[in-house]
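Aim 2, interim progress. The first record below pairs a target sequence with its structure tokens.
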Amino acid sequence: MTSADELFQQAANNYQRLGIEHSPFTESPTGLQSQTLQQVFTGRTNELKQVFNQFQSRERRRILVFGRIGIGKSAFLLEVLGTLQRQLPEMLSTYISLPADLDLATTALIALARAMPDDDWAQQQLYQMGIPTAKTLKERSAEVSGSLGIGGKLSEKDLPIIKPQYPTVSLETLLERAQQHYPRGVLIAIDDLDKQNPRRVRDLMHDAQGMLKGPAWFMLTGHPYGMTGDLLTSERGLFDLQIELQELDHPTTYQMLINYLNSVRIGTKYDDVADPRSVLPFSPEAAQKFCQASLGKPRLFNRLGNIVLSTAANLEAQQIDLDILDAGLKEARPALLQQAALSAQEERVRMLLEQRGSLGDDTISLEDLQQLGFRSYSEIFPILERLEAADLAHQLPQADATVFESIPLPPAEDPPQ
């Protein structure tokens, strides 16, 4: 019987047989200090130029990066912050993903305090909210003894966990302390607003107007419907710059594949896009087809990449040709469905979408809606967005209609032996 250690080594050998150390594909972008992000980040040149132009001024700016889920907003945000940390060390740049139950001011306070580990007051803010700090903080008190008040001792106890009563004021105080050491100011990047309910996002934005117009720079990411259509964002000028991220074109996606594979390649790296070795272990034909299947969506690119490589490794292949690629793509549909964990109603909508190929507000019939238990397209729209978030559908870039298509993956079947 094969031992677990032998199976682990066999798995490692299967990837090495493909000429790579391990799979380079990941659904979540790496952190600010990672060199991997610098290696694999591809494209978005015009968007980066627009953002970096803002930092040529000393006047603080507010920047919104928006786009649909899985389009690469987090990676873009981290690429901007990583560049600023290298190019503007006199500016403090910090990142946080918006927690589900916090307001923007408290979120920004946490992000900034984490970036100031040597500031005792900053660490006290974290400790009092129950957030781990680099060092344990204690509350000291003196006990006086004796009839004349002579003698005594110092005692320590843990600081109480409390919710900040005035997070905006605490943030302003912390910003003043930070700016003593960072003359170019402080940039606070708050990610993942698109993972919140759009109504809650609007409330958060309205409540945070004062904070966003304060002394810090801010970068936020959000969903196009949840933020750009809001009166506060579109008409009151809350943001100095709004950047929309869209699907990557095919040449950029192909270059991204080269960058990913080079980041884990064993031996010589091949950067020339015209060199067929640059996409090994993919054949050039399989690489082209893989990039087409990813639809220019970075998260789908990563999810499919992991599944295709895993399939190739399990088949002990030395190269991913069209047959191996098709076997991997056939494994992708059930894998994505398993990850999505759809409800019965969501599955019915998915099956209708797969049968029809596309669904839109001008093509779905009243009979379709009634069979699904809906009265209007607006009721089915959140489910279609849920399918898109699970990489089981994608919205077509049409200005005059809202149309979703099924992800064009081949039907699942047993892979070749």
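The second target in this work package is listed in the same format:
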Amino acid sequence: MKEMISVSPVTRIEGHLGVKVETDGGRVTSAQVVGEMFRGFEQILRGRDPLDAQQITQRICGVCPVEHGIASISAQDAAYGVTPPDNGRVVRNLIQAANFITSHLTHFYLLSGLDFVDLTQVTTYTGRDPALVRLRDWAKSQLASATANPVGPFLPQFTAQLIRDPALNIGVIKHYLDAIEIRQVGHKLGAVFAGKMPHAATLVPGGVTDQVTAIKIAQFRALLGRLRTFVVESYLPDVVAVAAAFPDYFGIGRGCGNFLSYGVFPEASGMGARFLPAGVILADGPGLQPLNVEGITEDVRYSWFSSATGRKPAQGETTPDPNKTGAYSWLKAPRYDGQVVEVGALARLLVAYHDGSRPAVRTAVDDLLKAIGREPKDLISMLGRHAARALEARLLVDRCAEWIEQLVPDQPAFTDFTIPESGAGIGLTEAARGALGHWIEIRGRKISNYQCVVPTTWNCSPRDDRGRPGAMETALIGTPVADPKQPIEVARVIRSFDPCLACAVH
């Protein structure tokens, strides 16, 4: 029997994502992912000084502001013809990597991990950990009577199979509590060179405004050590353990099988090699392909915009039309050479794995697959996305330890520039959630057009002009739903993408 299920909002902390799925015989047969609000950042930027862009676009999101700042100043670097010195390049990498790691920790423990833990087990906790004792007493009060009004983050919760092993369950909950504090360490790590977080003050075209000093290098090393300990000893082991406890989810949420990465963390000036390389993998293609920026377009047939459809971002328009017939989302539908693609940590790791230019990445992926008893193809799944983030966090804490040694105290971190009368530039980078691009056009030394194509726009897009569902919509199709009134399976697949609708409806 066919049933319609609507879940809105579906995300924790960062909401306004609606999902509608149709099930038949206990499986999802179609899905619509709905961006439920309009913001208009691209209109806000028109007519402004180009140097406003990196500050305004960081306000698109409080979770990944650094990445928007990096994309914006990279687009301006290209428009002004300026190249940051090595100190500036490395500092940008360190700030961005700190934000990646903090975002990944936040996602697993605070946004999605709560779909797996069993709070009732905490009520029988007999240990002495102060945080768990407080949580035990709170849980008892919340679960004491049917008339209690549960409050987040643990309750209310869909009824579902949760972690059965008490030791693992209590351990993940303890690490959830630890993660609330350790993510502050991640923000402090980024703020060493960013000035403050979450919205970095030092990001500018030509590099960064902060001065590299021996004291700041020492501060970064100390904070990185604390963050690395949590990633290595808690985060990655927890993800491996949860994967072992829910093996069926390696066969759920597979999606389109197409992946795109812009590449991130430049290892040399200009458009040289990046720590995580750019590339495209198409399921029906010959394997890893080089990225062709000209292949990116945006459809709007099912979006609440009256703008022209199928345009490349540099010629993009953002004209809202909330009464458009047939539309169901405020997200556009980005496509690559006409194909639906998935972006994110999984895409980055698969591209790097097949690229082969980073042996450390390939070795890390092989070691992870051995630990969870899986093959590379199994990563294309709900659990694979979680595993990719945890592994990326491990790779980045190690790489940051190497980057920090490349800084030279008291040497320039900024190259001066002049804003031209007219110009254009593209800033391609990666946010924690995937491929992020900013396109800027300047006329009369003012912004004449600005377009952003962000990760969740790629992943949560509506159908395109040819009627093909977006990456998340595709991943939801085939998902088993045991109880339509408790669609935990749908929620788990959605959260595996770590959607950020604030970005997507910029």
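The radius of gyration is 22 Å. This observation will shape the mutagenesis plan for the next reporting period.
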